[in-house]
Amino acid sequence: MKFRYSRWDGSQRVEDLDAGDVLDALSDDLMNYGDLNAALQRLLRWGSPNMQGLEQLLKQLREAREQELGRYNLDSTVEQLRQQVQDIIDTERTGIDRRLQEAQTPEARKLLDSAGFTRAVIYASNELDEHLIASLKQQGAKIGAWGVGTRLVTGAEDAALGGVFKLSAVRPPGGSWKRRIKLSDRGDKISVPGILQVRRFSIDGEFAGDLIYDLEEGAPSRVLVDMLDPTRRKTIADGAAQEELLVPVARGGKILHAPPSLEESRARTQRQLGHLHPGIKRFVNPHQYPVGLDPNLHERRTRMILEERGA
Fold first, then answer.
1. Taking residues 54-61, what's their average pLDDT?
2. For residues 51 and 22, is the Cβ–Cβ distance under 8 A?
3. For residue 285, is pLDDT > 80?
């Protein structure tokens, strides 16, 4: 199978572009989102009804490639290679995680014991199964409790939504709230301190973004700060509808609300999905739904991280 490439010399044929079609496509996008740079990027990538974008061109290339592969019966070979590469990646990832736990837990046990916390238990979690647990034990990892969840209740091919509760503040009886933070080498695993609430903004019935803020910081702004990249910020337009998402479930050990039925939960899920932009719900290259911290909360979190790390 051979492909021939050549430098652009002006003889290649390119579909004519009509200025009116381009402006119409841009104006529709600008009316919806108000971002010229994003509109140009989407036009380049997705095209419009009257012109092809990169996605359509890539689709044509994929179809041509599949036809060539069918001629030479290479499908099975390509799939085998892909699976072998994925197996190597999975093996390396598991090995790295295992070696990190093996190296860290003995030292952590020594530090705890030397500080007088001899009864403290080291707890391990994160996609554990019987093979990884046995390997850690054989390597002398000083782990006293194992958190096994996903691999226990689902098969390897079943989808699972991972989640964890993290303490964000404590308050002694009659005292004031004290914020708490959990650090990690990974930015997406560092917790958010404070008495937290989530405010969802909607514009013309469509969800525009979620803002995480501290209830004791006063009225929040309309600026969403990306937790992983603080240089990325989104400002919600004035006049957007808003809704507080977090409601108390229990107080003083008593349940405040009866849980909804399965039918009610399903119906609510369908209603909520109907408020999302179609670009967010698509399977191929979906848009990212905007979620961010209030600027005041972002600054407090950053200060606490730097203080805990001694920076």
1. 62
2. yes
3. yes
User: Which of residues 298 and 252 earns the better pLDDT score?
Assistant: 298
pLDDT at 136: 79
Q: What pLDDT, in 10s, does the model give residues 123-163?
A: 887 777 788 888 878 877 788 888 887 777 666 665 666 67
- Tokens representing 12 are 């290649």
When pLDDT is cut at 50, 70 and 90, the band that residue 68 belongs to is low
Phi, psi at 36, each rounded to 5° = -65, -45
List of domains in the chain:
19-72 (no CATH), 95-153 (no CATH), 179-308 (3.20.140.10)
Q: Using CA atoms, how far apart are residues 181 and 168, in angstroms rounded to an integer? A: 6
What does the pLDDT average to over 200-213? 95
